[in-house]
Design goal:
The chain is built from 13 helices and no strands. By secondary structure, it is mainly α.
């Protein structure tokens, strides 16, 4: 890019110049590969855990956690190398008149468009593979749109975190080394899937997975779904013999003969409801607000770090 031209143009013009550069890189430097990759990952998740999502409590928790992880994975891979791979160029052009705010704005717009495309692909793949979607919505008239907004916010927050890492990483190798650690933190501190010590729970507020998982469970009306793990465990124990009798089998037969199975499943679910997953618009909006808060916090920190790039002696 002509650095003299950048010096004479304002922030808005520089934003569009860099945005054009990013789209050319998307077409001609194989950056488009993140899109088929997101389709493959979504397909694997739909195949593995898609059959019970939004049908049972356990299936919903597992499935929404997997969907949130796909979003985190997509977001990280979108931008983990985009700044550090051209750090020397950015430093040189900044000294020649490049506005870092314009440079970051171009990246944010471009990454947001990538995230939208990935979410559309994810939803298309999941629906094509028979994954059930919620039948009720909280914000828009269309449940699929509500789900899409949540998936976008999770992907975008992860993308901006990776963009922040890319803004201070010395090399692409360093950035890729940091990424697995961030993935592990996002997975472990999801807040709902793993049993964490009470003292560690506040840390879950720092992760996109916690807010994504909570939003997706809320949208699926988690607390109205049956719980099947206790029933399935009882079925596995039906052949246990006690003094020549099979008491568990007799109980199961009684329940089936009197058509009480669904009542048992719902009673079990009632004892395991989570108020954080209530079908409540306030909970959903709070999750969205947290995801956007972290995304813009990462953007501001990354911009601040890049504004000091001239002082970087690396």
């Amino acid at each position: 890019m002509n650095t003299g031209r950048i010096r004479r143009k304002g922030r808005l013009s520089q934003t569009f110049i860099y945005l054009g550069k990013l789209f050319r890189m998307f077409l001609f430097q194989n950056d488009w590969k993140v899109l088929p990759m997101s389709a493959i990952v979504a397909g694997l998740v739909a195949f593995a855990v898609g059959s019970n999502i939004y049908k049972t409590m356990e299936g919903t928790l597992t499935g929404t956690f997997a969907l949130a992880c796909v979003c985190i994975w997509n977001g990280f891979f979108n931008s983990i190398q985009v700044i550090c791979r051209e750090r020397a160029i950015v430093k040189r052009e900044h000294r020649s008149g490049l506005h870092i705010s314009a440079y970051m704005a171009a990246h944010v717009i471009y990454q947001a468009i990538l995230c939208v495309l990935q979410v559309i692909i994810m939803l298309f793949v999941c629906i094509s593979m028979g994954v059930a979607m919620p039948q009720k919505s909280l914000v828009t008239p269309w449940p699929i749109v509500d789900i899409g907004i949540t998936l976008f916010f999770v992907t975008f927050a992860a993308d901006m975190l990776a963009l922040l890492v890319s803004s201070f990483a010395r090399t692409t190798t360093a950035a890729m080394t940091i990424m697995p650690f961030l993935l592990i933190v996002q997975l472990i501190f999801s807040g709902g899937f793993f049993n964490l010590p009470e003292a560690a729970m506040p840390l879950t507020n720092l992760t996109a997975t916690k807010w994504g998982l909570t939003a997706l469970c809320t949208q699926g009306d988690y607390n109205s779904l049956p719980m099947v793990s206790v029933w399935n465990s009882a079925v596995k124990m039906k052949d246990i013999d006690v003094d020549g009798e099979k008491p568990v089998l007799h109980v199961l037969q009684y329940i089936e003969e009197n058509d009480l199975r669904d009542d048992i499943l719902m009673q079990t679910a009632e004892q395991n409801r989570n108020p954080d997953y209530d079908f409540n618009i306030d909970i959903l909006v709070r999750c969205w607000e947290w995801l956007l808060f972290w995304a813009f916090a990462y953007i501001l920190i990354a911009t601040f770090l890049l504004e000091r790039i001239d002082k970087d002696k690396r």
